[in-house]
Amino acid sequence: MPLTSEMLDACRGQFPALQRQMAGRPVVYLDGPAGTQTPQAVIDAISHYLSHHNANHGGLFATSRESDDLLERTHRAAADLLGADDPDTVFFGPNMTTLTFAMSRAIARTWRAGDHVLVTRLDHDANVTPWVLAARDAGATVRFVEIRREDCTLDLDDFRSKLTDRTRLVAVGCASNSVGTINPVSDICRWAKAAGALTFLDAVHFAPHALIDVQALGCDFLACSAYKFFGPHIGILWGRRDLLEGLDAYKVRPAPNELPGKWMTGTQNHECLAGVLAAIDYLADIGRRANPDGVIDRRVGLFEAFRIIGEHEAALAGQLLAGLAAIDHIKVWGIADAARTEDRVPTVSVTHQRMTARELAEALGRQGFFVWHGNYYALQLTETLGLEPDGMVRIGLMHYNTSEEVDRLLKALTQLA
Question: Model-level pTM greater than 0.85?
Fold first, then answer.
């Protein structure tokens, strides 16, 4: 079943932010790649926890036990989201960047001088610099996988030429947060494993658009962030149990050595973990509502939800790319072919021949189109493309966006051009 107009209206009706107007017209939120809007259920879950269950964990009283139960349920929900079969292999932290720095520090203790680490020119810097610094401290060598400039896809020949039996870790994103490219990460994980290397996947930008399955991907670690899939600001990291148990964690002495507590430093953000649980259930409910019976488990609900979301977003991306191709002075960076939406998520970055990225973003912002400008921390990419320091303007479509909103944006861009 596609995302019908009734289902889309039902989804949009759950997001209070979508009621905002400027100059008598609804705001168009195209800033989702930097953080999506949140449904009322997430907002209510955070408030309800603080109002009724607020306590630290591990206590022998009601609110503490309720907090422990919440944490356990959130671990299970996150495992369902990621396709993990063990909730204890999923843990949380302030954000993906912090979790990646912590994990890179632990993994780097296993490296020696002469070892290699592969990172890419396409990634967000949170999946580059933690590994560069860890390699520096360990005396290992960093190798950068290049991109194909014509469509901002990874140069897989370059990747294979740099992957050797000295490679200890490959860090790559599932999808580019800048230009939307979907990387063939299951192939990359398979090649890395054959070479004896670990894989660390950044799924932050992929998570709101498609279903994650860590078992099928064959990765060793995967990180994402709840605020990119309609939840609060919480980072999530999954790892293989044997690796999480075998690596030494940097933690305080009283903290547990057992999973998942071994890797969760300090007191967690319980209220926002309640919001993470609500965000995952919001997504699963999209799939449940599409099922005539409505009674399916969370993972099946997520599978159906992302099938529906993917079809809707592909149609929006095709509409946007086709429209941009007809506008003078606008250049799309990355996959610009409207027929190749299966190779990208609906995140499109553009530059204008006569306006800087800042000027274009400001002009759109005055008309109620919320877009981002700059490099979005994908610094290696903008440097490679020669777009520093101005960067690009990023248009990020989510499932709560509509065809009418895309039409409005294209008309505004045509007038500016």
Answer: yes
